Structures are given as C-alpha cells and as structure tokens.
Amino acid sequence: MPNSLNPLEQIARRWQPSARLVERAALATVVLAVVIVVTGGAVRLTQSGLGCPTWPTCTKDSLTPTHEMGINGIIEFGNRMLTYVLCAFVGFAIIAARARAPRRRSLTRLGWAQFWLVMANGVVGGITVLTGLNPYIVASHFLAASALLTVAVVMWLRAREGDAPARPLAPRPVIGLSWLTVGVAGALIVVGTVVTGSGPHAGDAKRVHRIPLNWEQVTQLHVDLVFLLLGLTVALLFTLRAVDAAAPVRRRGLELLIVLLAQGGVGFVQYFTHLPELIVGIHMLGSCLVWIAVLRVPLAMRERPWTEEEAGVPGPATEDAAVPAGV
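User: That's the sequence. What structure does it adopt?
Assistant: Structure tokens below.
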C-alpha cells in the first residue's frame, strides 16, 4: 500500500524527472563540490580558520559569529553554511535519480556516497577547528573534499550514459595508461596537501603547528610530479592518435593537457611571486579542474549504451541513446 512506501518511493510514484534533469542535478553537485574546496581555501588564505573558535557552534555561547569576531568569523561560518547548501543539492540529486524510471541503483548509490562523504567531511572540519588547525587534519579535510568531488564527477558522467554493459573505446594498454595518469594526479594532490601543511599560509594569524618539512623541497617534489603528469598526458595524446581513438576520447585528452598547462602556469606565478593569496586561491580552483579533467579521460574510454528499457522511455533518454559516453 502507498502508506507503507518510504518517502523516496512515494516521490517516485508521483514524479518522473527526465534523464536531462538527473544529469543536471548531478552536475550541480560537481559545481558545489568545487565551490566548497575553493571557499575552504579562502578560509585558510584569509586567516579565518579559527574565525569560529569552536564547533559545532561558532562560540561556546553563540551558534553564529558575533560582532566582535569580525570578518574572519563571517568567512568561517559562511563556509560551514555552504555544507548545508551542498547537502540540499546532493539530496535533490538522490531524489531525482531515485524517481527516474526505470530505476538506476548505480546513480542512487553514488548519490548516497556523496551524502555520507559530506557528513564525514563536516565532522573532519569540526575536528580541524577543535585541534587548532592541525595540519594533518587539514590535509585529510582537503582529501575528503577531493573524494567527494571524485564521486560527484563519476555520478555526473554515469548520468549521461545508460546501464548496459560497458564497451571499451580504446585498447586495454591505452586504458591502463590513462589510469596511470589518474594515479599520478592523485599523488600530486596528496603532495599538494603536504605543501600546504608545511607552507606559510597556516590558516590563522596565531601561531599554528605546521608539518615539520622544508616546504620548498616538498614544492620541488610537487613540481616534479607535475612534469611527470604532463609527460604522461602528452604520451597519452600521441598514443590516442596512433590507435585512432574515437574523437570524444582524444578531446578529453586534449582538454586535460590544456588545463594542466594553465594550472602549471598559475603554479609558477604563485611560487615566484611568493604565494599571494589570490593566486593561491586560483591554484586551488585549478587543482579541482585538473582532477575533473583527468578523471574524464579513462571514463571516456568506454561507453554504456542505454538499455532497451531505458531507451524506451520517452524524452531525453531516447534522444541520448545514440550519444557515445564521454561526449
């Protein structure tokens, strides 16, 4: 009986979103995941990390920042509030994916994975404040945000394709090379958090514990990984051309190269200008764009057509049935 259904099932019986709406809802979570990373960087770069000195409230006596806390309290509290906005977008994506007929469990699982990552990262953010911006916790906070971005990107790309068995669009060694590129990019992100934890932007004007490493030497390792990633990307592009890979796959590789070159340029500018806050913030945005671009390459090397059941549904699913994955 309808009364025995859970709320998501009741919504699914009354509302049938289009495939296009589900895709856009998933894309919105990608955008919000990037915004969370960038605004989190703004908190650190404006020395607002302890703008709200405790958690989950802003002070022991107030949920919100007080007048005496100034702009730093507003920035830190505003970043906290963005978590609820992200939750709302993730929740809508989950509802839209669940209500879509035929039901796609793969999308709803990815949506719920995002929800629990948001919850976990909120707790990690609270621990970051309670530990006085411990650099190791700060690093884990950023890595959790990167994990959230990863799942959001995968959900977005899965929403653009069907649930039929995947078909490779490139030879297996080429696919392996693309995943190696993802691995190096992941290592680059991890080392980047060490650069942050040992560098001059501690996140607060007070004396904050830093990772006891020479940040310039760690930066050199970071740069070495950038060149390795760049070399792998160029090699991948030549390989894709040699095997005459599909145009969408080659396009994803070219996009990665362009984003990498732009990010590398920003990185050199920030280093030689002694890490100005604005350029560092742009670099953090660039790191998200690089990660999105690098993930899209291997995920474009296979296609999942719409199943007969999905293709038979009137609307965008039928129109998109012949569109290769990764377009």
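The chain is about 70% helix and 0% strand.
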